[in-house]
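Before the break, one more example. Copy the sequence into your notebook; we will annotate it together after we see the structure.
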Amino acid sequence: MMGITCQKLELDYPCTWEYKLIIKNEHIIDEIVKEIIKERKYNINLSNRSKGGKFKSYTLDMLVYSDSDRKEIYKLLGEHKH
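Here is what the structure looks like once it is written out:
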């Protein structure tokens, strides 16, 4: 992952990583996350709602074990149908 200054992001793993998730209001976030994360521990909190109430955004915090682990979770979350 490249930062604004085009320097490579250097992290000490394992570490806690924060993902931002946006879903339509009618979907249940815990079901979506458990489908992807499986048995791993995580913390999820509602962070915002759209003005019209059509979308909700959440912050997902979880322990990631490596750069590839962090990126794979990002990919799986982004590719989810909801």
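The first strand starts at residue 15 and ends at 24. DSSP finds two helices and three strands in the chain. Try to locate both features in your own notes.
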